[in-house]
Design brief:
With 515 residues, this protein is α+β, with helices and mostly antiparallel strands. It contains 17 helices and eight strands. It has helices at 11-32, 35-58, 77-97, 105-122, 126-154, 160-186, 195-201, 203-242, 247-252, 281-286, 290-310, 332-356, 391-405, 414-419, 454-475, 479-492, 497-510; strands at residues 266-278, 314-319, 322-327, 364-380, 383-389, 410-413, 428-434, 443-448.
Amino acid sequence: MSFLGRLSVSGAAEAASWLSLLLVSLFLAGIRQRWPFYRPFLGFLVTGALLRTAAVLTDPIFTLPLLPGSWPAFDLKLLVFATLVQAWLLPCLAAALGRRAGRLRWLALGGLALQTAALALLATGQAAARLAEGLLIGWWSLSGLLAVAGLLLSARRRPPSARLAGLLLAVLPLVLAAVAGPLAAALLPPLVDTLAAQLAIRLPWLFCAWVLFALSLSEMSSSCRHEADIDLYASDMATSVSRFIPSEFLRQLSKDNLSDLRLGDHIKKDMTIFFSDIRAFTELSEGLTPEENFAFINSYFSRMVPLIDAHGGFVDKYMGDGIMALFPAENGADGALQVAVEMQKKMTEYNGHRAKMDYRAISLGVGLHTGTLMLGVVGVADHMEGTVVSDAVNLSSRLQSIAKAFNLATVISEATFMALNDPGHYKYRFIGKVRVKGKSDPVSVFEIFDGLPPDLFERKMKSNRFFEQAILAYYQKDYPDAVFYFKQALDVVPEDGAARFYLELCLRRTMGGKK
């Protein structure tokens, strides 16, 4: 029996080891979808698994040599064995060297020459056959050493500790095999059946397999860490982008992610549009540095925007110190008006802090309108943004401008007024009708007193008795009476811009001015 034929270990355990390594490596390759990386390793594992499984199935006691020991010493078993080793060597080094794999031809030629010489020696007799076996074992050991070195080279970007561990696991048993194998075969024939000889020759194969498995796990863990980093980066990006495109915008368009948005996506829906603006902000900002301007605006937004979120709205855009928000809920009108009221209260509180620092008070104007709008995506393929298209937006902006021009806090349209669940819950006054571009009929406008500073609220309520009579006289074209009542209203609230506007208009018409 030849030297290799005498080697025998537990076939069942070895077959199970090969099969488990093969299955796990296939699993890793399938998950990573990196078949070129795993292909040479899988070929090696498939060969080993098939060989050991066949041995187990054909031997009743599950202990067969690496190759059937009944084969004659001069049979092709050694040629097949050496060719298998060479097949393991070349793909591994090819994976390491990439396009330079063509330089490995000399290895293939050297291996074929050595195999030819070994076959010639086998044919000459038992002593020469033992030498041939020793040469082939040495060739296999050297091939395995080069192959694992190639694997380590291909994994050169891994942490130094991982490379060192792989090097020790791979090189030590292979060096043992390279030295002990030929010596045991040529010089110590009595030891060929010992456990040491089996470990020297058989075990390195399994070490190659386990080193491959360790490298696969290392590649997998590295990829998992890379994927985790990508997931974290994607999450951070999604969070960052959501600061520019509100998540409620996506929900209204029935989209889960920003990547689902397409140019032209839109929805038509009834909403309440909210516009707010700080009075005389331009004058205020002129006395501030750029850093102070941004600090002021962001401080203001940090107080106001959470109110919008809390009442079911979302900010569509910021316009300098202005805010445009949308309230899509069924009770959007109530939510938007409640936000306006709470904003006015916040502004009163904020002015109290400013007064302590000898800063002048600032005021806020809000315009609300409820109507049908189209919410969607506009732009071009590589630069899109969400926007709102509707006359309702223009009217809401116009109402905010009226609030600013008349020095009013909160102004709402008749549509918003009628959309309130309980308009009587609020204190208000009718301040007239306005014509808006694109609308054939004038729009009724109301001022809301709620949220005003207590002193101003009381004065507004008191002056409203005169203002209501003045408005009634104005629409009846009884301008003298209107002038009288508007003056009474201004005596109570001198800063009432609406009363002053109507008073001047009535005076002109009373004196024969422009109708």
